[in-house]
Amino acid sequence: MINFNDFNFHPSIQESIDAMGFTKPTPVQIKTIPVISENKDLIACAQTGTGKTAAFLLPALQKILVNGDFNGTKLLVVVPTRELAIQIDQHMQGFSYFLPVSSIAVYGGGDGETWDQQKTAIAAGVNVIIATPGRLISLISLNYLKSETLQTLVLDEADRMLDMGFYDDIIKIIGALPKERQTLMFSATMPPKIRLLARKIMNSPEEVNISIAKPAEGVLQGAYLVHDDQKSPLIMDLLHDKPELKSILIFSATKKNVKSLNKQLKSDGLSCAAIHSDLEQPERLTVLSDFKNKKFQVLVATDIVSRGIDIDNIDLVINYDVPSDAEDYVHRVGRTARAESTGVALTFINSKEVRSFQNIEQLIGSEVHKIPLPRHIGEGPQYVISKSRYEGKPFRKGRSKDSRRQGKKRN
Questions:
Q1: Fewest CB atoms within 10 A around its CB: which of 127, 165, 223, 337?
Q2: Domain with CATH 3.40.50.300 in the chain
Q3: What is the model's pTM?
Q4: Fold of 219-380
Q5: pLDDT at position 204, please?
Q6: CATH number given to 4-210
Q7: Is 23:188 a contact under the CB 8 Å cutoff?
Protein backbone atom coordinates (compact mmCIF):
# COMPACT_ATOMS: atom_id res chain seq x y z
CA MET A 1 0.00 0.00 0.00
CA ILE A 2 1.41 3.38 -1.03
CA ASN A 3 1.89 6.09 1.57
CA PHE A 4 3.32 9.61 1.36
CA ASN A 5 6.78 8.42 2.41
CA ASP A 6 7.00 6.55 -0.91
CA PHE A 7 7.15 9.88 -2.81
CA ASN A 8 10.48 10.74 -1.14
CA PHE A 9 9.53 14.33 -0.39
CA HIS A 10 11.97 16.61 1.39
CA PRO A 11 11.93 15.91 5.16
CA SER A 12 10.45 19.37 5.86
CA ILE A 13 7.56 18.66 3.45
CA GLN A 14 7.02 15.23 4.97
CA GLU A 15 6.99 16.82 8.41
CA SER A 16 4.18 19.14 7.26
CA ILE A 17 2.26 16.22 5.76
CA ASP A 18 2.52 14.31 9.03
CA ALA A 19 1.51 17.37 11.06
CA MET A 20 -1.62 17.78 8.92
CA GLY A 21 -2.57 14.15 9.53
CA PHE A 22 -2.21 12.92 5.95
CA THR A 23 -1.16 9.27 5.68
CA LYS A 24 -2.65 7.54 2.66
CA PRO A 25 -2.54 9.38 -0.69
CA THR A 26 -5.68 9.48 -2.82
CA PRO A 27 -5.83 7.89 -6.30
CA VAL A 28 -5.33 11.25 -8.05
CA GLN A 29 -2.27 11.92 -5.89
CA ILE A 30 -0.84 8.46 -6.59
CA LYS A 31 -1.19 8.94 -10.35
CA THR A 32 -0.20 12.59 -10.71
CA ILE A 33 2.59 13.24 -8.20
CA PRO A 34 5.13 10.99 -10.01
CA VAL A 35 4.32 12.68 -13.35
CA ILE A 36 4.61 16.18 -11.88
CA SER A 37 7.82 15.22 -10.09
CA GLU A 38 9.35 14.32 -13.47
CA ASN A 39 8.69 17.92 -14.57
CA LYS A 40 6.22 16.85 -17.28
CA ASP A 41 3.19 18.83 -18.36
CA LEU A 42 -0.02 17.23 -17.17
CA ILE A 43 -3.76 17.24 -17.83
CA ALA A 44 -5.57 15.67 -14.88
CA CYS A 45 -9.29 15.01 -14.99
CA ALA A 46 -10.50 14.56 -11.44
CA GLN A 47 -13.67 15.58 -9.66
CA THR A 48 -14.00 17.80 -6.62
CA GLY A 49 -12.91 16.27 -3.33
CA THR A 50 -10.32 13.82 -4.70
CA GLY A 51 -7.28 15.53 -3.19
CA LYS A 52 -6.00 17.30 -6.29
CA THR A 53 -4.83 20.41 -4.39
CA ALA A 54 -2.16 18.41 -2.56
CA ALA A 55 -1.41 16.60 -5.81
CA PHE A 56 0.03 19.74 -7.37
CA LEU A 57 1.18 21.70 -4.30
CA LEU A 58 3.43 19.00 -2.84
CA PRO A 59 5.59 18.28 -5.91
CA ALA A 60 5.74 22.01 -6.71
CA LEU A 61 7.11 22.66 -3.22
CA GLN A 62 9.54 19.77 -3.67
CA LYS A 63 10.86 21.40 -6.85
CA ILE A 64 11.43 24.71 -5.05
CA LEU A 65 13.35 23.00 -2.25
CA VAL A 66 15.46 20.86 -4.57
CA ASN A 67 16.50 23.90 -6.61
CA GLY A 68 17.26 25.76 -3.38
CA ASP A 69 16.34 29.16 -4.81
CA PHE A 70 13.70 31.06 -2.85
CA ASN A 71 13.99 34.34 -4.74
CA GLY A 72 11.02 35.33 -6.88
CA THR A 73 7.76 33.66 -7.85
CA LYS A 74 8.13 29.93 -8.51
CA LEU A 75 4.52 28.68 -8.60
CA LEU A 76 1.43 30.36 -10.05
CA VAL A 77 -1.98 28.75 -9.51
CA VAL A 78 -4.89 30.27 -11.45
CA VAL A 79 -8.39 29.50 -10.16
CA PRO A 80 -11.94 30.61 -11.05
CA THR A 81 -13.11 32.01 -7.68
CA ARG A 82 -11.78 33.89 -4.69
CA GLU A 83 -13.11 31.16 -2.37
CA LEU A 84 -10.96 28.56 -4.11
CA ALA A 85 -7.94 30.89 -4.06
CA ILE A 86 -8.27 31.29 -0.29
CA GLN A 87 -8.77 27.57 0.22
CA ILE A 88 -5.65 26.63 -1.75
CA ASP A 89 -3.62 29.27 0.07
CA GLN A 90 -4.73 27.74 3.37
CA HIS A 91 -3.48 24.35 2.17
CA MET A 92 -0.29 26.01 1.02
CA GLN A 93 0.32 27.51 4.43
CA GLY A 94 -0.11 24.09 6.00
CA PHE A 95 2.22 22.27 3.61
CA SER A 96 4.88 25.00 3.80
CA TYR A 97 4.73 25.48 7.56
CA PHE A 98 8.26 24.17 8.05
CA LEU A 99 9.59 25.71 4.82
CA PRO A 100 11.02 29.14 3.91
CA VAL A 101 8.33 29.52 1.23
CA SER A 102 5.93 32.49 1.04
CA SER A 103 2.47 32.54 -0.57
CA ILE A 104 -0.47 34.85 -1.14
CA ALA A 105 -4.04 34.54 -2.43
CA VAL A 106 -4.84 37.23 -5.00
CA TYR A 107 -8.47 38.05 -5.79
CA GLY A 108 -10.83 40.94 -6.33
CA GLY A 109 -13.63 42.18 -4.13
CA GLY A 110 -11.54 43.25 -1.16
CA ASP A 111 -10.83 46.70 0.20
CA GLY A 112 -7.99 49.02 -0.77
CA GLU A 113 -5.75 47.69 1.99
CA THR A 114 -6.05 44.14 0.65
CA TRP A 115 -5.21 45.33 -2.86
CA ASP A 116 -2.12 47.16 -1.56
CA GLN A 117 -0.99 44.04 0.31
CA GLN A 118 -1.36 41.94 -2.83
CA LYS A 119 0.61 44.39 -4.98
CA THR A 120 3.38 44.70 -2.41
CA ALA A 121 3.76 40.94 -1.96
CA ILE A 122 3.85 40.24 -5.69
CA ALA A 123 6.26 43.06 -6.43
CA ALA A 124 8.55 41.65 -3.71
CA GLY A 125 8.55 38.26 -5.43
CA VAL A 126 6.34 36.10 -3.22
CA ASN A 127 7.16 32.45 -3.99
CA VAL A 128 3.62 31.15 -4.57
CA ILE A 129 0.69 33.09 -6.03
CA ILE A 130 -2.86 31.70 -6.08
CA ALA A 131 -4.96 34.08 -8.15
CA THR A 132 -8.23 34.62 -9.95
CA PRO A 133 -7.83 35.63 -13.62
CA GLY A 134 -9.28 39.15 -13.40
CA ARG A 135 -7.12 40.33 -10.52
CA LEU A 136 -4.03 38.67 -12.02
CA ILE A 137 -4.60 40.49 -15.32
CA SER A 138 -4.70 43.77 -13.39
CA LEU A 139 -1.37 43.00 -11.74
CA ILE A 140 0.18 42.05 -15.06
CA SER A 141 -1.09 45.25 -16.69
CA LEU A 142 0.47 47.29 -13.86
CA ASN A 143 3.78 45.41 -14.29
CA TYR A 144 3.72 44.08 -10.72
CA LEU A 145 4.09 40.42 -11.69
CA LYS A 146 7.72 39.42 -12.19
CA SER A 147 7.47 35.99 -13.76
CA GLU A 148 11.05 35.40 -14.95
CA THR A 149 11.65 32.94 -12.10
CA LEU A 150 8.42 30.97 -12.62
CA GLN A 151 8.80 27.19 -12.59
CA THR A 152 5.24 25.88 -12.56
CA LEU A 153 1.84 27.10 -13.77
CA VAL A 154 -1.31 25.38 -12.52
CA LEU A 155 -4.77 25.94 -14.01
CA ASP A 156 -7.19 24.55 -11.43
CA GLU A 157 -10.89 24.00 -12.20
CA ALA A 158 -9.98 24.75 -15.82
CA ASP A 159 -13.38 23.75 -17.19
CA ARG A 160 -15.09 26.11 -14.77
CA MET A 161 -12.84 29.00 -15.80
CA LEU A 162 -13.72 28.48 -19.44
CA ASP A 163 -17.42 28.22 -18.60
CA MET A 164 -17.11 31.57 -16.82
CA GLY A 165 -15.62 33.20 -19.92
CA PHE A 166 -11.98 33.42 -18.82
CA TYR A 167 -10.45 31.92 -21.99
CA ASP A 168 -9.05 35.23 -23.30
CA ASP A 169 -7.77 36.14 -19.84
CA ILE A 170 -5.96 32.81 -19.54
CA ILE A 171 -4.31 33.29 -22.93
CA LYS A 172 -3.26 36.80 -21.91
CA ILE A 173 -1.84 35.54 -18.62
CA ILE A 174 0.14 32.80 -20.35
CA GLY A 175 1.50 35.33 -22.82
CA ALA A 176 3.12 37.14 -19.90
CA LEU A 177 4.83 33.99 -18.56
CA PRO A 178 8.12 32.39 -19.60
CA LYS A 179 7.78 29.67 -22.22
CA GLU A 180 10.15 27.43 -20.33
CA ARG A 181 7.89 26.23 -17.53
CA GLN A 182 5.88 23.24 -16.37
CA THR A 183 2.14 23.56 -17.00
CA LEU A 184 -0.44 21.54 -15.06
CA MET A 185 -4.15 21.57 -15.82
CA PHE A 186 -6.74 20.12 -13.45
CA SER A 187 -10.35 19.82 -14.59
CA ALA A 188 -13.42 17.92 -13.41
CA THR A 189 -14.55 17.31 -17.00
CA MET A 190 -12.77 17.22 -20.33
CA PRO A 191 -14.85 19.04 -22.96
CA PRO A 192 -13.29 19.80 -26.38
CA LYS A 193 -12.46 23.38 -25.41
CA ILE A 194 -10.15 22.10 -22.67
CA ARG A 195 -8.20 20.02 -25.17
CA LEU A 196 -8.03 23.00 -27.52
CA LEU A 197 -6.57 25.12 -24.74
CA ALA A 198 -4.12 22.37 -23.81
CA ARG A 199 -2.79 22.18 -27.36
CA LYS A 200 -2.09 25.92 -27.29
CA ILE A 201 -0.31 26.18 -23.95
CA MET A 202 1.17 22.77 -23.09
CA ASN A 203 4.10 20.67 -24.25
CA SER A 204 3.18 17.01 -24.93
CA PRO A 205 1.19 16.67 -21.70
CA GLU A 206 0.62 13.40 -19.91
CA GLU A 207 -3.03 12.61 -19.14
CA VAL A 208 -4.54 11.21 -15.95
CA ASN A 209 -8.24 10.46 -15.63
CA ILE A 210 -9.88 9.80 -12.27
CA SER A 211 -13.66 9.20 -12.09
CA ILE A 212 -14.53 11.58 -14.90
CA ALA A 213 -17.89 13.30 -14.46
CA LYS A 214 -19.20 10.86 -11.86
CA PRO A 215 -20.09 11.44 -8.23
CA ALA A 216 -17.91 9.76 -5.64
CA GLU A 217 -18.70 6.13 -4.89
CA GLY A 218 -19.79 6.96 -1.36
CA VAL A 219 -22.64 9.26 -2.46
CA LEU A 220 -26.10 7.72 -2.10
CA GLN A 221 -28.13 9.57 -4.73
CA GLY A 222 -31.89 9.95 -4.87
CA ALA A 223 -34.46 12.22 -6.51
CA TYR A 224 -38.05 13.32 -5.93
CA LEU A 225 -40.56 14.31 -8.62
CA VAL A 226 -42.27 17.38 -7.20
CA HIS A 227 -44.51 20.29 -8.10
CA ASP A 228 -42.97 23.62 -7.11
CA ASP A 229 -45.42 24.12 -4.25
CA GLN A 230 -44.40 20.73 -2.81
CA LYS A 231 -40.70 21.60 -2.46
CA SER A 232 -41.02 23.52 0.79
CA PRO A 233 -43.16 20.90 2.59
CA LEU A 234 -40.83 18.17 1.36
CA ILE A 235 -37.67 19.88 2.55
CA MET A 236 -39.19 20.46 5.98
CA ASP A 237 -40.24 16.81 6.10
CA LEU A 238 -36.68 15.77 5.27
CA LEU A 239 -34.97 18.10 7.73
CA HIS A 240 -37.38 18.21 10.66
CA ASP A 241 -36.06 16.60 13.82
CA LYS A 242 -32.87 15.23 12.28
CA PRO A 243 -30.18 16.03 14.90
CA GLU A 244 -28.00 13.25 13.52
CA LEU A 245 -27.45 15.36 10.37
CA LYS A 246 -24.80 17.80 11.56
CA SER A 247 -24.07 19.46 8.19
CA ILE A 248 -26.67 19.96 5.45
CA LEU A 249 -25.99 21.88 2.24
CA ILE A 250 -28.92 23.05 0.09
CA PHE A 251 -28.37 24.43 -3.42
CA SER A 252 -30.90 26.65 -5.14
CA ALA A 253 -30.71 28.24 -8.57
CA THR A 254 -31.10 31.91 -7.65
CA LYS A 255 -30.09 34.16 -4.78
CA LYS A 256 -33.76 35.17 -4.44
CA ASN A 257 -34.72 31.56 -3.75
CA VAL A 258 -31.76 31.15 -1.42
CA LYS A 259 -32.82 34.13 0.68
CA SER A 260 -36.46 32.99 0.75
CA LEU A 261 -35.62 29.41 1.69
CA ASN A 262 -33.19 30.49 4.39
CA LYS A 263 -35.86 32.74 5.92
CA GLN A 264 -38.42 29.92 5.85
CA LEU A 265 -36.07 27.38 7.45
CA LYS A 266 -35.19 29.82 10.22
CA SER A 267 -38.85 30.51 10.91
CA ASP A 268 -39.39 26.77 11.23
CA GLY A 269 -36.73 26.55 13.90
CA LEU A 270 -33.74 25.25 11.94
CA SER A 271 -30.24 26.57 12.57
CA CYS A 272 -29.16 27.87 9.18
CA ALA A 273 -27.47 30.58 7.14
CA ALA A 274 -27.27 31.59 3.48
CA ILE A 275 -24.45 32.42 1.09
CA HIS A 276 -24.91 34.16 -2.26
CA SER A 277 -23.38 36.85 -4.47
CA ASP A 278 -24.96 39.75 -2.54
CA LEU A 279 -22.71 39.04 0.44
CA GLU A 280 -19.40 40.82 0.74
CA GLN A 281 -16.30 38.64 0.78
CA PRO A 282 -15.70 38.88 4.56
CA GLU A 283 -19.34 37.89 5.14
CA ARG A 284 -18.99 34.85 2.86
CA LEU A 285 -15.83 33.73 4.63
CA THR A 286 -17.48 34.10 8.03
CA VAL A 287 -20.51 32.05 6.95
CA LEU A 288 -18.32 29.30 5.47
CA SER A 289 -16.07 29.23 8.52
CA ASP A 290 -19.05 28.96 10.86
CA PHE A 291 -20.54 26.15 8.75
CA LYS A 292 -17.26 24.22 8.71
CA ASN A 293 -17.06 24.62 12.48
CA LYS A 294 -20.61 23.27 12.92
CA LYS A 295 -21.98 26.51 14.37
CA PHE A 296 -25.19 25.97 12.43
CA GLN A 297 -26.74 22.93 10.75
CA VAL A 298 -27.95 24.07 7.32
CA LEU A 299 -26.22 26.18 4.66
CA VAL A 300 -28.40 27.40 1.78
CA ALA A 301 -26.34 28.44 -1.23
CA THR A 302 -26.21 29.29 -4.87
CA ASP A 303 -23.60 27.57 -7.05
CA ILE A 304 -21.02 30.00 -5.72
CA VAL A 305 -19.92 27.21 -3.36
CA SER A 306 -20.55 24.17 -5.55
CA ARG A 307 -16.90 24.04 -6.58
CA GLY A 308 -13.70 24.63 -4.82
CA ILE A 309 -14.83 24.96 -1.22
CA ASP A 310 -13.12 22.61 1.20
CA ILE A 311 -15.93 21.54 3.52
CA ASP A 312 -15.63 17.98 4.77
CA ASN A 313 -18.12 15.72 6.52
CA ILE A 314 -21.29 17.09 4.93
CA ASP A 315 -24.01 14.57 5.66
CA LEU A 316 -26.66 15.67 3.17
CA VAL A 317 -26.72 17.71 -0.04
CA ILE A 318 -30.10 18.78 -1.42
CA ASN A 319 -30.55 20.20 -4.91
CA TYR A 320 -33.64 22.33 -4.36
CA ASP A 321 -33.49 23.01 -8.11
CA VAL A 322 -31.95 20.83 -10.80
CA PRO A 323 -28.76 22.49 -12.07
CA SER A 324 -29.14 23.51 -15.72
CA ASP A 325 -25.58 22.36 -16.43
CA ALA A 326 -25.21 18.61 -15.95
CA GLU A 327 -21.59 18.99 -14.89
CA ASP A 328 -22.62 21.29 -12.04
CA TYR A 329 -24.58 18.38 -10.57
CA VAL A 330 -21.33 16.46 -10.13
CA HIS A 331 -19.78 19.39 -8.31
CA ARG A 332 -22.83 19.94 -6.11
CA VAL A 333 -23.09 16.34 -4.94
CA GLY A 334 -19.30 16.28 -4.66
CA ARG A 335 -19.65 18.36 -1.51
CA THR A 336 -20.57 15.15 0.33
CA ALA A 337 -18.74 11.79 0.52
CA ARG A 338 -15.37 13.51 0.32
CA ALA A 339 -12.12 11.71 1.07
CA GLU A 340 -13.73 8.25 0.92
CA SER A 341 -16.49 9.11 3.40
CA THR A 342 -20.19 8.54 2.68
CA GLY A 343 -23.09 10.93 2.23
CA VAL A 344 -26.51 11.47 0.70
CA ALA A 345 -27.46 13.72 -2.22
CA LEU A 346 -31.14 14.37 -3.02
CA THR A 347 -32.57 16.32 -5.97
CA PHE A 348 -36.01 17.87 -6.42
CA ILE A 349 -37.23 17.64 -10.03
CA ASN A 350 -40.23 19.61 -11.27
CA SER A 351 -41.98 19.08 -14.59
CA LYS A 352 -39.79 21.65 -16.37
CA GLU A 353 -36.52 20.19 -15.15
CA VAL A 354 -36.90 16.62 -16.29
CA ARG A 355 -34.87 17.10 -19.47
CA SER A 356 -32.04 18.66 -17.50
CA PHE A 357 -32.04 15.68 -15.17
CA GLN A 358 -31.95 13.31 -18.14
CA ASN A 359 -28.74 15.00 -19.20
CA ILE A 360 -27.32 14.51 -15.73
CA GLU A 361 -28.10 10.80 -15.76
CA GLN A 362 -26.53 10.45 -19.18
CA LEU A 363 -23.42 12.28 -18.01
CA ILE A 364 -22.90 10.17 -14.89
CA GLY A 365 -23.81 6.98 -16.76
CA SER A 366 -26.50 5.73 -14.40
CA GLU A 367 -30.10 6.32 -13.39
CA VAL A 368 -30.68 8.07 -10.09
CA HIS A 369 -33.24 6.31 -7.89
CA LYS A 370 -36.62 8.09 -7.81
CA ILE A 371 -38.09 8.17 -4.31
CA PRO A 372 -41.88 8.28 -3.79
CA LEU A 373 -43.18 11.40 -2.06
CA PRO A 374 -44.57 10.99 1.46
CA ARG A 375 -48.35 10.52 1.30
CA HIS A 376 -49.18 13.68 3.23
CA ILE A 377 -47.34 15.79 0.62
CA GLY A 378 -49.44 14.41 -2.21
CA GLU A 379 -48.63 13.15 -5.68
CA GLY A 380 -45.95 14.78 -7.75
CA PRO A 381 -45.68 14.96 -11.54
CA GLN A 382 -45.77 11.60 -13.30
CA TYR A 383 -43.35 10.74 -16.06
CA VAL A 384 -42.71 7.70 -18.17
CA ILE A 385 -39.45 6.29 -16.92
CA SER A 386 -37.43 4.03 -19.16
CA LYS A 387 -34.86 1.59 -17.86
CA SER A 388 -32.03 4.09 -18.17
CA ARG A 389 -33.60 7.54 -18.27
CA TYR A 390 -36.76 9.65 -18.26
CA GLU A 391 -38.69 9.88 -21.48
CA GLY A 392 -39.72 13.39 -20.47
CA LYS A 393 -43.42 13.16 -21.32
CA PRO A 394 -46.00 13.77 -18.58
CA PHE A 395 -48.98 11.45 -18.42
CA ARG A 396 -52.24 13.08 -19.30
CA LYS A 397 -55.01 12.97 -16.75
CA GLY A 398 -57.45 10.14 -17.22
CA ARG A 399 -55.09 7.79 -19.01
CA SER A 400 -55.29 4.20 -17.87
CA LYS A 401 -52.33 2.15 -16.73
CA ASP A 402 -52.61 0.09 -19.91
CA SER A 403 -52.38 3.16 -22.12
CA ARG A 404 -49.37 4.33 -20.10
CA ARG A 405 -47.64 1.01 -20.70
CA GLN A 406 -48.43 1.24 -24.43
CA GLY A 407 -47.06 4.77 -24.54
CA LYS A 408 -43.91 3.58 -22.85
CA LYS A 409 -43.45 0.79 -25.40
CA ARG A 410 -43.88 3.20 -28.32
CA ASN A 411 -41.14 5.38 -26.88
A1: 165
A2: 4-210, 219-380
A3: 0.62
A4: Rossmann fold (3.40.50)
A5: 92
A6: 3.40.50.300
A7: no
